[in-house]
Amino acid sequence: MALNNNTSSPIKLLISFHKLFDQYELLAQSENVWMAEKAKSVLKIAEMYPELKAGFSDMSLIKKRETQIAEILQDTFNPLLTKNEIKAATAPFNDAIFNLSERFKSIIAAAGKDFKLEIKNMPDDDKYIMACTIILNTYYGYDFNFRRPFHYEIPDKNGIIRFYKILYNADFTEVIKSSNAPNITQEDIDSLLDNFDDITLWKKLFPENGYTLKGFVISNIFDVTDDFAISEIKSNLIAENKRQDKNFIKDLQSIFQSFLKITDIKVGFSVYNKDEGIFERVYGEGMHSFLLNDNPMGNCADMLCKSSYKKLLEENKHVAVSNVEKTFHLTQGKVPHIKMLYEQGFKSAIFAPIANKDGLMGILELVSNQPKALNSINANKLEDVMPYIVATVERSKTDQENLIEAVIQQECTSIHKSVHWRFKQAAQAFIKENILQNKNIPFREIAFENVYPLFGQIDVKGSSEARNLATQKDLTDQLELAKAIIDKANTDLNMPVYDQVAFQINAFLTQVKKAFKVDSEHVISLFLKNEVSSMLNLIRKTNANLVPEVDNYFEQIDKDLKVLYTHRKNYDETISLINKNMSTIIDDRQVEAQKIYPHFFERYKTDGVEHNMYIGESITREDSFSLIYLYNLRLWQIQVMCDMENAFYSNQDLYPLKLDMASMILVFNQPLSIRFRMDEKQFDVDGTYNARYEVVKKRVDKAFIKGTEERVTEKGKLSIVYSQQDDEEEYLQYVRFFQSKNMLDTDLEVLELQDLQGVTGLKAIRVSILYRNNKTDSTNYYTYNDLMDVIEN
User: What is the pLDDT of residue 277?
Assistant: First the structure.
């Protein structure tokens, strides 16, 4: 067999011991008689067998000159260390080895007759480029660092794969350039630095067999199975694509077998659910839990004895069972996890906690069919790999939480944190059933029973009228601007079409001022965008005197809406600022309210801000609810409404448009059930009786006081709507309390309301809010009218 057959390389290999002989030439002159005689005996071999110095590529000579080569290499292969060192001579980066140490020979023999030794991690293209870098470093004196860790994978007598790292000593080699190889210039080097993957370029500059590498290398080989196994565990765990591979568990088991030197290890995992106090299975290809066996979950206290529970969950230490059968009989089958292992036929096991600074996340389960194979001694070796398992579980946990959140967001939209736990439960079930178990089960409905509702709103008084007025002003201004230009154009050049458009403008001006209807804005806007704009563009082209006025007209028009948008913009910006400021206040105050007692809260921006709250035991999961928390929250609600009113009027100079607000609270004294409506992505009351609450909530702010045309909501006043006498008595106490705090005035009214459709018997407490003018004297309190006088003056 020729050394260079079937290989593509810029280097032609010649095995030679000439450099070693050069060293012995010097030693032959040594004053040390024994050393000199030894050197002379080696040089005599060189004289007798000149091919050993000249070099050869015929590998049959290795066998033919085996005795002489062993004698030449005796000093570099110390016979006293041959049973300990793993060592061989070879040509560089080649599987052809010779002069193996005794230990290396025994390792190869244990691998079996069919085993073929191969260097791993050496792709053909990379091998070619690596040979080029050797030439650059050795022959041209550059420093190209392109070394890769090479290794052998060799099975032991039990079939367990062991890993051996190869380190080369190339002191006895030299590179010789042939005449047909081009000289490498700095320009070539610069080109190679930017084109590592261009194998064509490398082969152009370093043609095949353009150089000769003459000599031999010494391969020093080290058993790195533990380090390699840890690295592979890390790689398999951290790499996302590998963890999703269907062979993930099989590969992981193989690595653990090498790491612990046990042929039949099986790997399992279970997840610790702290909220529920249970162990759960990990769902995925090949995943199994030997602690749970076929059960999807199990109570932690029921799955472990007290001692193991304390070790794993509290101390985060491993539990090792070296002899399952013996322990099972000693404990009479009463220890749950021992019984579970015994029934599955396992003889030894290790349960290792997967824990971080926040506590236990899960259990790594290793089992074997051999008694004593897994024990408390080799369990300590897991300390080297647990950090990577912990990191992987943390990442998987984050991925799981993100997936849960994605399901919640997709199925339920944004969810308040007080009820998030229930959605998380449902999302976990959804993922297990549909994604992991490949079923097709809809997202489970979320409902909370026996919760008390609270509703309030702070709304712009007369918002529809205010917006209509802003719209009328914008349309009037734009129509008059257009009419002025068209009238001037008609004076300069009398054309019937000008008269016709001017007539339409006058008609629309009359409609805007005297008979403005719901669809008027749309009709007039289309007229302005289409006919008027076209007419003005024509005037710009035909009447140079009017170009500045036409340009001024279009400069005042909103570029996106194509209409005048000044007064409506002021209205919209005012509403937006009011909503933002009011929302900020109630959101900030919600932090305090949640401390009173955790409850569901949501708010909506309309022409103001509405809020819903639900409080009850079913929301908190705790047996701690008392009506005292409801009363506290009702007091909080009144105070926040007063504070929002105060903030609105004290900051009115910040708004582009002057508007008024009216506040209302709706009282419902009976607990009800709420259910999350998947189609609407929001909570709603559940049941026919409870639907009355929703009807009232939607219509009550438009209700009239009985026998009048006066709305129940009024600027400067807080309206509290209710239907039961108990509610009236309760809220009159609250009003008197806030009157004592100078937050509400003394002009309290108890009013009956006209019946709404399907709702009768409503009443209202109405009382003026006292305001503090922060810009003058924060200790003085004002009624609405007093405050307006102070602000205006």
Answer: 87
Mean pLDDT for 168-195 is 89
Across the range 299-314, mean pLDDT stands at 88
User: Looking at the predicted structure, is the pLDDT value of residue 86 above 90?
Assistant: yes
Give the 3-state secondary structure of residue 617. Answer: helix
**pLDDT at residue 396 in the model:** 62
Residue 623 has pLDDT above 80, yes or no: no
Give the residue-averaged pLDDT of 93-99. 81
Contact 242, 43 (CB under 8 A): no
Q: Which residues pair with 771 in a beta bridge?
A: 782
Give the chain's mean pLDDT.
Answer: 83
Q: Is the pLDDT of residue 430 over 50?
A: yes
Neighbouring-strand partners of residue 102: none
Q: Name the band, by pLDDT with cuts 50, 70 and 90, for residue 497.
A: confident
Is residue 148 within 8 Å of residue 130, measured between CB atoms? yes
| Distance of alpha carbon 448 from alpha carbon 601, whole angstroms | 14
Residue 488 scores a pLDDT above 80:
yes
Polymer length of the chain: 793
* CB-based contact 267:253 (threshold 8 Å): yes
Task: Give the DSSP per-residue string, 443-507.
Answer: PPP-EEEEEEEEEEEEEEETHHHHHHHHHHHHHHHHHHHHHHHHHHHHHHS--HHHHHHHHHHHH
User: At residue 204, does pLDDT exceed 60?
Assistant: yes
Q: What is the DSSP code string of 71-101?
A: HHTTTTS-GGGTTT-EEEEESTT-S-EES--
Token representation of residue 688 = 């026919």
Q: What is the mean pLDDT of residues 116-136?
A: 80
Q: Which amino acid is at 215?
A: G
Query: What is the structure's pLDDT at 779?
Result: 44
Q: For residue 420, what pLDDT is reported?
A: 60
- Between CA 331 and CA 62 the distance in angstroms is 64
Sign of CA dihedral 189, 193, 195, 197: positive
Long-range pairs for 391-396 at CB < 8 Å and ≥24 separation? 391/237, 391/238, 392/237, 392/238, 392/243, 393/354, 393/361, 393/362, 394/356, 394/361, 395/238, 396/243
**How far is Cα 101 from Cα 107, in angstroms, rounded to an integer?**
10
Q: Counting runs of H as helices and runs of E as strands, what totals does the chain give?
A: 29, 23
pLDDT of residue 176: 92
> Does residue 786 surpass a pLDDT of 60?
no
Q: How far apart are CA 624 and CA 528, in angstroms?
A: 64
In angstroms, rounded to a whole number, what is the distance separating the alpha carbons of residues 380 and 259? 12
Report the sign of the C-alpha dihedral through residues 192, 194, 196, 198, in that order.
negative
Q: Which of 723, 721, 730, 729 is nearest to 767 (CA)?
A: 721
Rounded Cα–Cα distance for residues 412 and 202 (Å): 59
Locus of tokens 């009382």: 767
φ/ψ (deg, to 5) at 664: -145, 145
Bridge-based pairing state of the strands 359-368 and 348-356: antiparallel
Q: Which tokens sit at 96? A: 């052809």
* Tokens 């996890």 found at: 337
Strands (DSSP E) along 616-691, which ranges? 660-667, 672-677, 682-686
pTM: 0.50
DSSP category for residue 382: G
Burial class (CB in 10 A: 0-12, 13-18, 19+), 462: middle
For residues 328 and 309, give the distance between their C-alpha atoms in angstroms, rounded to a whole number. 17
Q: Are 633 and 613 in contact (CB under 8 A)?
A: yes
Running DSSP on this structure, what letter comes out for residue 436?
I
3-state secondary structure of 352: strand
Q: What pLDDT band is residue 776 in, cutting at 50, 70 and 90?
A: very low
Question: Do 14 and 55 meet the contact criterion of CB atoms below 8 Å apart?
Answer: yes
Q: How many CB atoms lie within 10 A of CB 439?
A: 10
Q: What is d(CA 138, CA 171) in angstroms, rounded to the nearest whole number?
A: 11
Rg (CA), the chain: 44
